[in-house]
User: What shape does this take?
Amino acid sequence: MSPHHRPPECNTMAMNFFQRRKFFKKANALDLTPLRLLGHTLREDAKVSVMMPRFHSTIWGPLLQPRTSRKFVPIKLDELGSATWLLIDGKRSVADICHELRERYPENPGLIQDLEERVSKFIFLLYDQRYITFREIAPDAVPAQ
Assistant: This one.
């Protein structure tokens, strides 16, 4: 399987909306362990582009994919988003990722002040877009390389 293809657990969620909402109300965001579902490429400016497949459907994808020149849509991340994406490996919790980012950017006090809030919002945005999942929700998911 190509590292840029979405795995099956990305298309169908393991939990329905109400189960996820109940789980997230009880869970502490800093204790969750995110893992990537999509591949990425490094740009020349050392930032990350997440490679999202152009077609998600199992019916239309094989029919329309050969006719397009670009099979993936690159989603460009900024410096903090790129650093966060590269730290998501399925082993580190959100708190560990925040700690690593705090060590990586000590010269920016504005960033350090609300780092946990910004990173947790970004990670939940990635989760809503189905770019990542959490180890606690999908324990059998295989991280993208």
